[in-house]
Amino acid sequence: MANKVSKSSTKELAENAAAYCEPCDSLGMAFSRHIRYWLSRDDDASTAVFYSLALSVKEQMLEAWRDTRSQDAQFDKKQVAYLSLEFLMGRALGNALLSLDLSDECRQALKEYSVTLEEVQEQEHDAGLGNGGLGRLAACFLDSCASMDLAVTGYGIRYEYGMFVQKIVDGYQQESPDKWLRSGNPWEVRVPVHNVTVPFFGRTESYVDRNGRRHVCWVDTHDVLAVAYDMPIPGYKNQRVNTLRLWKSEATDEFDLDEFNQGDYAEAVARKNLAEQITMVLYPNDSSENGKELRLRQQYFLSSASLQDLLRTWVKKFGTDFSQFGVKNAIQLNDTHPSIAVPELMRLLIDEYLLEWDEAWAITTSTMAYTNHTLLPEALERWSVRMFSYMLPRILDIIYEINARYMDAVAHQWPGNSQKLAEMSIIEEGHDPHIRMAYLAIVASFSVNGVAGLHTQLLKSGLFKDFYQLWPEKFNNKTNGVTPRRWLAYCNPRLSALLTKQLGEGWVTDLSQLRKIEGCVDNKTFVKQWQEVKQANKQELAAMVKQQCGVDFDPAMMFDVQVKRIHEYKRQLLNILHVIHLYHRILQGDTQNMVPRCVLIGGKAAPGYAMAKTIIKLANNVAHMVNSDPLVRPFLRFAFLPNYNVSAMEKICPGTDLSEQISTAGKEASGTGNMKFMMNGALTIGTLDGANIEMLEEVGEDNFFLFGLNAEQVAQTRQNYRPADIVSASPALSAVMELLTSGHFNLIEPGIFEHIINAILSPYDQWMTAADFDDYCAVQQKVGLAYQDQKYWTQMSIRNTAASGRFSSDVTIAGYRDEIWRV
Ligand code: 26W
Questions:
Q1: What percent of the chain lies above the pLDDT cut of 90?
Q2: Is 33 left (phi over 0), alpha (psi -120 to 50) or beta?
Q3: Ligand 1 pocket check: which of 84, 134, 812 to mutate, most ligand atoms within 8 Å of Cβ?
Q4: Are residues 653 and 488 in contact, defined by beta-carbon separation less than 8 angstroms?
Q5: Could you give the 3-state DSSP secondary structure of residue 236?
Q6: Gyration radius of the chain over CA positions
Q7: Which SS3 state, helix, strand or coil, does residue 90 take?
Q8: For an engineered disulfide with 403, which of 203, 288, 309, 426 has Cβ 3.0 to 4.6 Å away?
Q9: Ligand 1 atom having least distance to the Cα of 289
Q10: Residues 711, 666: contact at Cβ < 8 Å?
Q11: Which tens digits make up the pLDDT trace of 199-217?
C-alpha cells in the first residue's frame, strides 16, 4: 500500500489534498487564490477564469459532498447504483451555480476581470459522454436524485474521447475526435483508494475443497486496473452532493514475467497499453449494435469495477453476511449495455465470497432492475459465445448455468414446447451462437420497465411478450422526464424570471405548479411578456444559427426545429420533403396564407450509417438552394446546424416556436427533446409515438398538432404498402419527388440521392415516409394559420409550458423510488 502512494505523482497528491481539504474561503476568496496561479500560466485569460471559477465552485461543494457520503453511510439508507455506459452531462458550471445559489456571488467575483459570466461559461467543454437520449436521461436522473435527496450513485466510464465532433464539409458530415479532457477536467477528483482490478481472458479451473464443495477459479487472467474519478452532483439548494463515479482503465503494475524473462520487454510494456484502450473512446452508435470486442470489454470493465466497489463498501460495513444486500441495494441497468453485471455479481458472490448458487441468485434477482430504451430489433445486443469464451470464460460458464435453470422454468410453463425453449433461451443457438443480453437482463431482474406508456405496452405485446406471460409482475412503465433545473431554470432565464414573478420559486422543484399559469392566458400583460421572452430567445438562437451556419434567421418568422440523432425512423427526411414542398410552392407563386418560416435541423449520424449521412447531405443541399434564391427567402430559410449537443440545445429549445416529433409511430421509445421544447413553450407537431401521446393527453388536442398513422395503422398499412401509388395520388408529393429525381439539388453530384429516392418508393420502407406525407403537409398548413394569430399562438404556448409538469424527471424518479427501488 505504502508503495502505491509513493507512486502517485505529487501533482495528483496535491490535487487530492486540495479536493478533500476544508473550504475555508468564500467563493470570491477562492477565486482570487486560483486565478493568481492560472494567470501565471500562459493560458488565455478566459480559460484561466473558467478553470479558476470551476475549481472555486467545486471547493464550495466539498464539505457538503463529504457530509453526504458520511450521512448516507451512517443512516443505513438503501443505496441505488445507476449503471450506464453513457452520461451525457454537458457543461457543469451553470448547473452548479444554480444548485448552490452562487450566481450573484460569482458575477461579483468576475467584476474585476472585464468578462461576463456567460462568456466564461462558453469556455467549458461539454462532457459528451453519451450518444443521445439514453445518456442525457441518465444525466437528468442524477440531477433529480440529488435534488430529491436520494442516495443514488452514477457509475460510468471516463472516456478519453467523448461523442465525436461533427463538422459539415461540402454538405457532408465529417467526424473528428472530441478530446474533451485536453485542458483537464476541473470537476473530477481522482480517488485511487477505490482502485479495483478487473480480470480478462485466462481460463477456468475447478477444485474440490476439504468439505467436498466444488469451486471454480478463473486463472491466468490479464488484469486491468480500474481507477475511480468522482464528479460531484449537487442537489438543488439542498446541501446534498451525490457522486458520479467514472472508471478509467490503466495497466496494473504487474508485468508478464515470463515474457519479460524471455527478453520481450517491449512486448510486455505494449500489452500494458491494451489496458488503457478500454476507456479510450465512446462508441458513437445509437440504435444498432455492432458486436465489437472492445465494446464488450468496456461493458464488463464498468460492470465489474462498479460491483466490486459496491461489495467492498458492503463488506467494510456488514462483513460477509450478504443476506440483506438486496434490501439495502438496488442496481438499475440503463439498457442492456451493463447487463453483464448479472453474471458478474453471481461470480463475485460465489467465487470471491463463497456463497452458494441459490443464495447468490436470490441476492442478484432482488437487486437488479432493467430499463429498456428501444424497440428497434437491430439495437438489441447479442454477443458471440465464441468471443465470450476467450475473453470472459468464467462469465460464460455462469451464463450457461443461469440459462439452464431458467429453461426449467420455461419448460414448466410451456410443457413439451421445444420451440418456446429455443425462442426464449438466453443462448441463441446456430452455427455461431449468441447471447441475448436483453433476455439475460429480464431473467435476472425483479423489475423491467419501458420509458413511455406506448413503449411499455409494445414491449409487453411484442418484443418481450413471452416474458410478460411468464412474469407479468416484473413489467412496469416509467415515462421519461427531463430536469427542470437545466431545461428551464438555467437554460431559459427570461422565462424562468417571468414564471417566478407569477408563481414564486416553488415550480423549480415541483413542476406541477406550472399548471397555475393556465389562468394567465387572458391576462394581456402576461401574454405580452411571454411574447417578449420568446422574441428575445429567438434573437439569441438566430445569432447562433448565423454564426454556425451563416444563415440569417429572422425572429419575425416562425422557428421550426428538429434536433436529435439522425435516423430513418425519426424521419428527418419527412421534414426535408416538407421543406422541398414549400420551396416548390413558393417557386410556383403559391404563397397565399404561407407563414414565413425558418427551418432548423441538427443532429449527428452514426459514422457507419450511410443512409443517415446521405440525409444530412440532402438537408445541406436543399438548404443551399432555398437560401440562395431571393424569391424564396421572404418565405423560407433552412439551415443544418453542425455538432448538435447539450449546450446547443440549451439555446435552441428556448427559441423554438414549433418542435418536430415526427417519428414513425411505434418506433420512438419515448423521446425527451419533445419534453424540453414543451417546457419552454414550443408547440409540437407530432405523431402518436413515444411520450408524444402523453404530452397530447396533458395539453389537449387543441394545443398540439397531431398527424399521421398510429402504431396500429402503421402495422396494418405495412401488410400492403404501395408508396408508388401514394406518390401518384398526391400532386404535392409527386412534385417533390420530381424535383428530387431531376437532380435539382445535386446538379454537380449526380445520383447521390438515389438511395433516398428508392427508399421512399420501396414497398419495404419500414419508416413509411410517403404514407404520412400528405397529412403532415396539411397539418403544417394548419400550424401556419395558427401562427398568424399571435395572441392565440401565445396562449397555446403558455398552455404547453403549463402542462409540462408531468415531464419533470422528478416525477419519473419519484416513480422509480416508490415502485422499483423502494427507498
Ligand atoms: C448497442 C448500440 C446502442 C446504443 C444506444 C443501441 C441502443 C442505444 C440506445 C437505446 C439509444 C437511445 O438513446 N434510446 C433512446 O432512449 C431515450 C431515453 O429513454 C428515449 O427517449 C428515446 O426514445 C430512445 O430512442
A1: 90
A2: alpha
A3: 134
A4: no
A5: coil
A6: 27
A7: strand
A8: 426
A9: 1
A10: yes
A11: 999 999 999 999 999 999 9
As a whole number of Å, the end-to-end CA separation of the chain is 36
Residue 138's nearest CA partner among 151, 129, 149 is: 129
CA nearest 660: which of 679, 642, 686, 696?
686
Ligand 1 center to 451 CA (angstroms): 10
For the chain, the average pLDDT equals 95
**Distance between CA atoms of residues 196 and 192, nearest Å:** 9
Single-letter residue type at 375: L
pLDDT computed for residue 257 by the predictor: 63
| Of 335, 382, 454, 687, best ligand 1 pocket probe by most atoms within 8 Å of the beta carbon | 335
pTM for the predicted model, two decimal places: 0.96
Contacts of residue 135, defined as CB under 8 A and 6 or more positions apart, other chains included, come to: 84, 86, 87, 88, 129
Report residue 9's pLDDT band, with 50, 70 and 90 as the boundaries. very low
* Structural domains of the chain, with CATH: 10-479 (3.40.50.2000), 528-803 (3.40.50.2000)
Q: Pick from 159, 163, 286, 668 the residue to mutate for probing ligand 1's pocket: most ligand atoms within 8 Å of its CB.
A: 286
d(CA 131, CA 164): 9
**What are the tens digits of pLDDT across the range 378-425?**
899 999 999 999 999 999 999 999 999 999 999 999 999 999 999 999
Q: How confident is the model at residue 10 (pLDDT cuts 50, 70, 90)?
A: very low
SS3 765: coil
Atom of ligand 1 nearest to the CA of 671: 21
Residue showing cell 501533482: 11
E-state strands within 177-288: 189-200, 203-208, 214-219, 222-234, 241-251
Task: List beta partners, residue 406.
Answer: none
pLDDT confidence band for 258 (50 / 70 / 90): low
Atom 12 of ligand 1, nearest CA residue:
134
pLDDT bin (cut points 50, 70, 90) of residue 14 is very low
Contacts of 695 (CB under 8 A, 6+ apart): 674, 675, 678, 684, 686, 704, 803, 804, 807
Which of the residues are catalytic?
373, 564-565, 570, 672, 676
Report which protein residue has its CA nearest ligand 1's atom 22. 671
The pocket around ligand 1, CB under 6 angstroms, is made up of: 131-134, 137, 285-287, 289, 335, 373-374, 379, 381, 451, 480, 668-672, 690
Atom of ligand 1 nearest to the CA of 137: 18
Per DSSP, the three-state class of 482 is: strand
- How far, in Å, from the CA of 376 to the mean position of ligand 1? 9
CA of 335 to the centre of ligand 1 (A): 8
| Number of CB atoms found within 10 A of residue 758's CB | 10
Quote the ligand 1 centre to 33 CA distance (angstroms).
43
Which numbered atom of ligand 1 lies nearest the CA of 690? 23
Q: Which three cell numbers stand for residue 108?
A: 461579483
Cα 43 to the chain's mean position, in Å? 32
Residue 24 has pLDDT above 80, yes or no: no
Is the separation of the CB atoms in 714 and 664 below 8 Å? yes
